Amino acid sequence: CSVFITQEVADASQPVIFNPDFFVERLKHEHPQVLTDLVLSNITRLVDLPGEEFSQFTGDSDPKIPTAGGFLRSFNFLKRKEKGVVFGAPLTEEGIARIYQLIEYLRKHLHVEGLFRVPGHSLRQAALREMLNAGAELDLEAGDFHPNDAATVLKAYLGELPEPLLTHRHYHVHLKIGELTLFDENGDKTSILDKDRQIEAFQLLFMLLPAANRSLLKLLLDLLHHTARNQHLNKMSAINLATMFAPHIIWPKNVTASDLQGNIEKLNKGVAFLIRHSQQLFKAPAYIKEYTRLYFAGSKSLQSKDDLTLCSGTTSGAMSAAAPASPSPSQQKLKGGVSLDYTESALRELYQQVNNMPASAKKKKLIRQFEKQPLHVASADSRTPFSRKHWRSRSLGGIIKRKVLGGQVQAEKENNGQSPSNRSCDGRD
C-alpha cells in the first residue's frame, strides 16, 4: 500500500499521511477471511438475501440465474485457458494491461459522436484483435484505427470473458441493491431510491470482487464516467452507455434478452448508477476503515458501526484505548469458537432488523420471542460490523427456526451466569 507526504514546503519534518484505505488493504493481505466476514456482515445488513441466494453469493453453491425456462447454472469448468490469448480467456492482469491500451486511447477521444454506439470497421477490428492477442505494442495514434474500432473491440473483449466482469455470484446482489429505497415516517418503503445506501452497498460489494475484476471495473467505469460527462459532444449519456455495456459486464452468460424478462431495465439502471457514481464506489466505507485501524491498534472489543460513528467525533486517542489485559467474561468462548461478544452483537443486529419491519402481526410475534430471551437485546440500538463465517443471512423466520435465540443463549448462561455487559467506546463499563 502506498503512502504519500503532504508537502507545502520541502521539509523533512512533515508528517507521513497513510493511504486512507491502508489498514483495509493490510487486513485484506494479512487476514483476508476477517475482512470478508466483516464486509459480508454489512452487506447483509443492507440487502436482504434469502438462504439460497446467500449461498450462491458466498460460493457455497453454484450460481443459478432465473430464466424464462427455469434456471441457468454457471459452468465454471468450461472456462478456456489459452496461453497468450486475450479474447475469450479468463481475466488476468496481463490481459488487462493489453486492453488498457484501448482504454487509454479512448480517453483521448471522448468527443467522438456515438462513441460505443457506432460500430467500427470489421477489417480494422479483426486486425486490432489479432494484435492484442499476439501481445503487440499498439500505436493507436498513428491513424490506422478509428476510436469506434477501439470502442467496439473493448466491448467485444468484455462480452467474450468466460464470466461477466461483475461475476455470476454477485448477480442477485446487484438486483437487490437496485431495489434499495427510502422509508417513510411509518417505516414503509417508498418509491424513492436510497442513493447513500446503494453507494455503501456497492462499496462493500466491490471489496469482494477478485482483484483482476476490481482493477478492470475501476478502469472501465472511470472511462464511461468521463464519456458521460462529455455527452454534450458525444451524445452518450450514462443510461445510453449502460444500455451498451450491461449485456457485456453483468448479463449472465448464455442467456438472451427474453430469458432475463423484467430484469433488463433494472440491470441497465444499475449500470447507469455505477457510471454516474464511479468516483465513490472504490473507497471503503468510513466504519470499515475505522474498524480495520482498530484491529491493528490492538483493540480487542468488537464495536458496532454506530459506536464507531459516535467515537469518530471524539479526540483522536479515544478510539485506540487498549483492551483490558485479562479477558472479560464477555470475551470468553462458546463451543465452536463463537465469542459471547459476538453472540450478543448478532442478536442485537437481528433484533434491530425485526424492529425496523413495518407494523404487522408477524413483527409482534417476533418481538415477543425476543422478549422471552434472557439477553436484554430489546434495548440495544447498535449493529455490529463484524461477522463469523457460519453466521449467515437468512430470512428472519429461518434464523429463529435455527434456534439462534436458543442454543447459544443457553450456552452463554452456563458459561457466564448472566448476560455480558456492553462496553463503551473508551473501554469503560
UniProtKB/TrEMBL annotation:
Residues 416-429 have a biased composition (Polar residues). One of its GO terms (cellular component) is cytoplasm. Keywords: GTPase activation. One of its GO terms (molecular function) is GTPase activator activity. Residues 89-282 form the Rho-GAP domain. Signal peptide: none annotated. Transmembrane segments: none annotated. One of its GO terms (biological process) is regulation of small GTPase mediated signal transduction. InterPro entries: ARHGAP19_RhoGAP, Rho_GTPase_activation_prot, RhoGAP_dom. Pfam families: RhoGAP. Residues 402-429 are annotated as: Disordered. GTPase activator for the Rho-type GTPases by converting them to an inactive GDP-bound state. This is Rho GTPase-activating protein 19. It comes from Tetraodon nigroviridis (Spotted green pufferfish).
